């Protein structure tokens, strides 16, 4: 089976023939991948193989030099910055290796922020944020700022912020890379359970085979090119 084949219906998000270079350094050399609704797909490969570049292009954070990224029938490479910002605020969510929380805000304010930016009143946003913080076991840290949180707690707050809007797709770029193995597996268990409950798809970049095993499928990158698609055990 290759990266454009699956028995689960039409893709929600599809990248075809992506090329991306940063200066004279190529990151992607014709990479293709796709993601279907409710699917968890791991992107693996050695350091420097283009994993994060593929995720960033598929999330609309970076425009490829050549190739297509289709979200349903929408060309993301042709979308305006306003449209891409709207998608990232309402339908896409991104989780990074280091949670990238706003250091001046408390945990509950960090989680509430996407809702408030979308027009939800503060009280309602805080109520939903508290529910997600409780789900991820960090409700008791709601008033703490990122600098007062452990790495695992910070990543749980970042997951709550990502999921509070009910996104269709979660882009997770090495979400456990800064955690020890136990905390990493706990975070992945919580992420996959929450995504499946929401019916959200997850595109997961990881170098860790243990973390990749949480996915339904695996796409391997080598030198910016996608290889065979593997079904996780």
TrEMBL record:
UniProt-listed SMART domains? AAA
Q: Which InterPro entries match?
A: AAA+_ATPase, ABC_transporter-like_ATP-bd, ABC_transpr_LolD-like, MacB-like_ATP-bd, P-loop_NTPase
GO CC annotation: what is one?
A: plasma membrane
Query: What keywords are assigned to this protein?
Result: ATP-binding, Nucleotide-binding, Transport
User: What top-level branch of life does the organism fall under?
Assistant: Bacteria
Q: Where is the ABC transporter domain?
A: 13-233
Annotated Pfam families: ABC_tran
Give the GO molecular function terms.
ATP binding; ATP hydrolysis activity; transmembrane transporter activity
Q: What is this protein called?
A: ABC transporter ATP-binding protein
* Annotated organism of origin: Streptomyces montanisoli
Taxonomy of origin reads: Bacteria, Bacillati, Actinomycetota, Actinomycetes, Kitasatosporales
């Amino acid at each position: 089976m290759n990266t454009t084949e699956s028995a689960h219906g039409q893709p929600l998000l599809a990248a075809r023939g992506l090329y991306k270079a940063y200066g004279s350094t190529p990151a992607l050399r014709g990479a293709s991948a796709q993601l279907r609704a409710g699917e968890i797909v791991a992107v693996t490969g050695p350091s420097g193989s283009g994993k994060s570049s593929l995720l960033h292009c598929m999330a609309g954070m970076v425009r490829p030099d050549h190739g297509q990224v289709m979200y349903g029938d929408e060309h993301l490479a042709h979308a305006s910055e306003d449209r891409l910002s709207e998608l990232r605020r309402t339908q896409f969510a991104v989780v990074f290796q280091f949670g990238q929380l706003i250091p001046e805000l408390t945990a509950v304010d960090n989680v509430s922020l996407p809702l408030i930016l979308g027009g939800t009143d503060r009280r309602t946003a805080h109520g939903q944020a508290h529910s997600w913080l409780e789900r991820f076991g960090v409700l008791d840290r709601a008033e703490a700022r990122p600098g007062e949180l452990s790495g695992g707690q910070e990543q749980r707050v970042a997951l709550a912020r990502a999921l509070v809007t009910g996104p269709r797709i979660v882009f997770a770029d090495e979400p456990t890379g800064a955690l020890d193995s136990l905390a990493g597996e706990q975070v992945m268990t919580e992420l996959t359970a929450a995504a499946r409950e929401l019916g959200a798809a997850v595109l997961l970049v990881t170098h860790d085979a243990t973390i990749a095993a949480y996915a339904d499928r695996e796409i391997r990158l080598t030198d910016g090119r996608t290889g065979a698609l593997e079904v996780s055990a």
